[in-house]
């Protein structure tokens, strides 16, 4: 296992580790609350979402901090592009004034769904590629 030599990449890896610790610490903090069962579902949902952020940060620390084999580069870029599409999709959905007519009329929600589909497809292709090769 070799560490990346670029100081900026090392800093990014460290900030990813900090983000992972904060997310997992935040989940622990939320789980320590004494709530009635009627409120527990909220903690469960948010813990899952925050846990995924922590997992992404931990994986980011590996990607930015370690020298990876060339075989990992293509799937990582596919997955990163898929995540980028998802971020763009979220921005589109937040902007209620966006619409597009292409065969049918799409409002911000419809455009969000189509961009999210493209992002998910890229993410799945990257995941599949990383498992197969």
**Proportion of β residues?**
under 5%
The biggest beta sheet, please? 2 strands, antiparallel
Average of the residue pLDDT scores: 89
Give the distance, in angstroms, between the N- and C-terminal Cα atoms.
19 Å
- By secondary-structure content and strand pairing, the structural class works out as mainly alpha
Categorize the overall geometry. flat
Structural domain count = 2
What fraction, in percent, of the residue positions are helical?
Answer: over 70%
What is the helix tally?
Answer: 4
The main sheet orders its strands as 1-2
Kindly provide the radius of gyration, computed on alpha-carbon positions and rounded to a whole number of angstroms.
19 Å
Total number of β-strand segments?
A: 2
Low-confidence runs: none
Order of helices and strands: HHHEEH
Give an overview in words:
With about 130 residues, this protein is mostly helical. The chain has two domains: about 1-70; about 70-133. It is built from four helices and two strands; from the N terminus they run H-H-H-E-E-H. Strands 1-2 form a two-stranded antiparallel ribbon. Strand 1 (about 100) and strand 2 (about 105) form a beta hairpin. Helix 1 packs antiparallel against helix 2 and helix 3 (about 75-95) packs antiparallel against helix 4. It is flat. It starts with 6 loop residues before the first helix and ends with a helix. The mean pLDDT is about 90.
């Amino acid at each position: 296992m070799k560490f990346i030599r670029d100081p900026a990449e090392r800093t990014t890896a460290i900030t990813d580790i900090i983000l992972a610790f904060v997310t997992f610490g935040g989940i622990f903090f939320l789980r320590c609350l004494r709530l009635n069962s009627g409120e527990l579902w909220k903690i469960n949902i948010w813990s899952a979402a925050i846990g995924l952020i922590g997992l992404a940060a931990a994986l980011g620390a590996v990607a930015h901090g370690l020298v990876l084999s060339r075989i990992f580069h293509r799937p990582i870029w596919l997955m990163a592009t898929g995540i980028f599409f998802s971020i763009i999709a979220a921005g589109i959905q937040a902007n209620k004034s966006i619409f597009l007519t292409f065969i049918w009329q799409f409002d911000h929600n419809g455009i969000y769904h189509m961009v999210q589909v493209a992002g998910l497809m890229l993410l799945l292709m990257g995941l599949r590629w990383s498992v197969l090769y």
